[in-house]
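Weekly puzzle thread! Below is a chain. First person to post its structure in token form gets bragging rights.
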Amino acid sequence: MEHVRADLVSRARAGDEDAFRALTEPHRRELHVHCYRMLGSFQDAEDALQETLLDAWRGLNGYDGRASIRTWLYRIATNRCLSVLRAASRRPAKAWDIPGVEPPEPTRLGEVAWLEPYPDALLEGAINVPLGPEARYEQTESISLAFITALQLLPPRQVAVLVLRDVLGFRASETAELLDTSVDSVKSALKRARAGLQRQEAATTDSSVEEAVVAKFVDAWESADVDALVALLTDDVFMSMPPLPFEYQGRDVVANFCALLFGAGRRFDLVPTRANGQPAFGAYLRTPSGTRRGTGLYVVTLAGDRIRALTRFENTVLPFFGLPRSLPAR
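Winning reply:
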């Protein structure tokens, strides 16, 4: 195996793009998820991955073979993401843009306006990779919206250390080498990251229960039945709408928001998909012409047989999931 890798490296250094793809393609999906974990944005992860591969192509002469190609690529990707995190130009929050609906007073304003969902269709082969001995998170938990959001509230270096150590399981010495720092610095950053991370206990829902809850949610949402929707919510249900900063906590507050939405005459059809290991739906607004216009994507977080969180994203994310911007009249 080593002689095969050495041959590919040699050919890639000589300008063979096929050899370079053979070296990097097996790691492409997991690197994309790694960039997404660190950045919280599907689009930013796409950009970071492309820059990572470009940096790797340009810097292949600097690869000394001591680490695996995979580890070397993680080093490049992590440092590329750190550069993005340290930049001041993350996407800002947007103003309220739902026509005909006056927003109720939010419980609070969210800080992670750039958050985007990740399609489950792209997770295959990306989160079932071999993990190091230090991993502390289930891979499904480490791609959940709650976890990704919590990561975004940590300082950049702490994000990198926690993902490398607790999610991917790199040893402290390996992480220190990846980040060009000391083992003591890694241990200190990890301790602070663990203390600062608002870890939410992952809820597991039986697939048959999930199917039943999701069916009830679709029926309630499409028929604008607020009472039926409220019956599905936990007492502390949480609703957010990045890049809109408005966040709502609690069953009554979320119910009031939905009542205002439906009370404005907005009616939707939902198209199922999955995001971040969770049920998700493209939302299509029914219009007088009969055409149904894509307005966004909802990700539903379950806790047993109840809905614990609803996250609404704008319609720019629909193409990530292969969903159209509009549906024809029925």
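Puzzle host: Confirmed. Bonus trivia for everyone else. The longest strand covers residues 292-303.
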